[in-house]
Amino acid sequence: MAKVMVTGGAGFIGANFVHFWRRTQQSDEIVVLDALTYAGNAANLAGLDGVDLIHGDICDTALVDKLIADYGIDTIVHFAAESHVDRSITGPDAFVTTNVVGTHSLLKAAKNAWLDQGTGRPHRFHHVSTDEVYGSLGPDDAAFHEQTPYAPNSPYSASKAGSDHLVRAYHHTYGLEVTTSNCSNNYGPYQFPEKLIPLFTLNALAGRKMPVYGDGMNVRDWLHVEDHCVGIGLVLQHGRVGETYNIGGGQELRNEQVVEAICHGVDAAFAADPTLGSRYPDAPAAQGRSTMELKTYVEDRKGHDRRYAIDERKIRSELGYVPARDFPQGFAETLDWYLAHEPWWRPLVARASLAV
């Protein structure tokens, strides 16, 4: 039985991991540490038994020290991060504070509890990172692998790169037992409606424009969050200490393709369920029109990386990871989830000043 602390466990990926871990590792004790900032939501953990939610900041090393000691924590799964690239461009300070200083705070507390005090207990610090630390690929470049040199291009990715290096350093310098995973673009339930898929899905329901950056040809590898959680679980249970594993969905798509999938998915949902028209009367699909008419092009984001792609052969060959969903299946599940959980997303849309 492990005693697990999940940082950022009330956020999008963290909450999905808590649900996954509670379902698959029922004997483990789980403590969630989350600052409950705009993207953190205690409602994401509603209905889960045996999960303690602590409202606190990972930068508060004394608090982290106390939680590790009080709960006997032997595993930390570190999701807590500022992660929205647009926000990092307009306000980079918060990204450096949370992603770099916060990660260092956790590492110090873990080292103090597991190494300096000599408990002798097996332990693991798993750090969740992003493919964005590798920079941008050309159309014919090989996909990112674990030895790809870091070349971050935004304040967000630079702060995540800094945190990755700190985790590596605490392993090589002090012997802290760590693993790191770098993932591609996640989507799925509980995603805060500022990211592309939930934002455009909810805009489609409201009849609001879908603002596509630049020419819409930027390419991302899309990973359903449940498949990501499965990958993290494999790394925690079977990954080699000190190693990094890339986790991808194997679904490399242009942004335009993703937007088209959202539009077609919404249109099909309205055609299959006439009640959606009365629930969302401003949606073009409610009036027999195509959601594609909402697509518009806007000025490209500063420093917008052109392409990301993940080479996941290492985690496949070493740990047997295989994503269970292709994008059409994963998006269909995601759309169904948002249509069925309006009481969950409605307050968040209001908080984000997105009238739906």
From TrEMBL:
<dbReference type="InterPro" id="IPR036291">
    <property type="entry name" value="NAD(P)-bd_dom_sf"/>
</dbReference>
<keyword id="KW-0456">Lyase</keyword>
<dbReference type="InterPro" id="IPR005888">
    <property type="entry name" value="dTDP_Gluc_deHydtase"/>
</dbReference>
<keyword id="KW-0520">NAD</keyword>
<dbReference type="InterPro" id="IPR016040">
    <property type="entry name" value="NAD(P)-bd_dom"/>
</dbReference>
<dbReference type="Pfam" id="PF16363">
    <property type="entry name" value="GDP_Man_Dehyd"/>
</dbReference>
<protein>
    <recommendedName>
        <fullName>dTDP-glucose 4,6-dehydratase</fullName>
        <ecNumber>4.2.1.46</ecNumber>
    </recommendedName>
</protein>
<dbReference type="InterPro" id="IPR020904">
    <property type="entry name" value="Sc_DH/Rdtase_CS"/>
</dbReference>
<comment type="similarity">
    <text>Belongs to the NAD(P)-dependent epimerase/dehydratase family. dTDP-glucose dehydratase subfamily.</text>
</comment>
<feature type="domain" description="NAD(P)-binding">
    <location>
        <begin position="5"/>
        <end position="333"/>
    </location>
</feature>
